[in-house]
Amino acid sequence: xxxxxxxxITAIASNAKQNxxxxxxxxxxxxxxxxxxxxxxGTYHFYFGDExxxxxxxxxxxxxPGAAKGRNGTGMATAVGYSVPEGSLPFWAARFKxxxxxxxxxxxxxxxxxxxxxxxxGLRIEFIVPSKKDExxxxxxxxxxxxxAIKGFHSTTLSLRNIKPTEAILTDVFGYKLLSQENNRYxxxxxxxxxxxxxxxxALPDRPPGYVAAGTNHHVAFRVKDEEVQMAIREKILxxxxxxxxxxxRDYFYSVYFREPGGVLFELATxxxxxxxxxxxxxxxxHLKLPKQFEESRAQIERVLPVI
Length: 308
Known about the structure:
The protein is α+β, with helices and mostly antiparallel strands.
């Protein structure tokens, strides 16, 4: 009855085709699902991850054409951390240089080497070589093979003016434990899973709030086994005086949302039913899948959506 690490992370992009090209062709992730925003069916909702869209590997995007550029700040997730194999960072540094992708020098944090770079909208991503070998099987492409390919999430970083209230949610409700501290960065981890179990809290007491738009993270989703676990954790959130939503059907998982005390939008997302509920595994991401309530408007929606 606990959180099983990260489920997915959702961010905002400004150009649908550019977003697809970067995450599939440059980073080598699989397009797992091509659907639309439940609240705005004229906007795509893309899911990128491993072969089957395993929880803990999925990054999702709302690509709003012409969206204003966002600004990282407090009250939001400010970096997406991916796990990559030992010895792969020079490959990625060379690849980013060749493709003129903004990057920083290879560095080290908590004893783990990493490289930071930005996607076309400025979203901060970190490729991290974990201290313990990640045995997850990655998705491979012609240019990105298994020796260097993304395994799935390593961590996410939350920037906060005061980390204590957020830390309390992670430890008291989600079952995370404080592992270590480097300067103003505090690392928490859950022992419920081997991978995708780290959350870094960055204490920035003088930093202004961020602005959520293109190139920023919209929310962070945490993984729960099923609706029973989800509802049990929801009760704990209510007991903390917070206001979670009810259970919402997102077709591929069930969701409960709430804003934690530091301002970050959190989600509890179930493992069930998964992405093969409406497409076979070998065809994931190849069809435009619409929520049932929008199916009768398919022709109109397809005319509005950008060509990718």
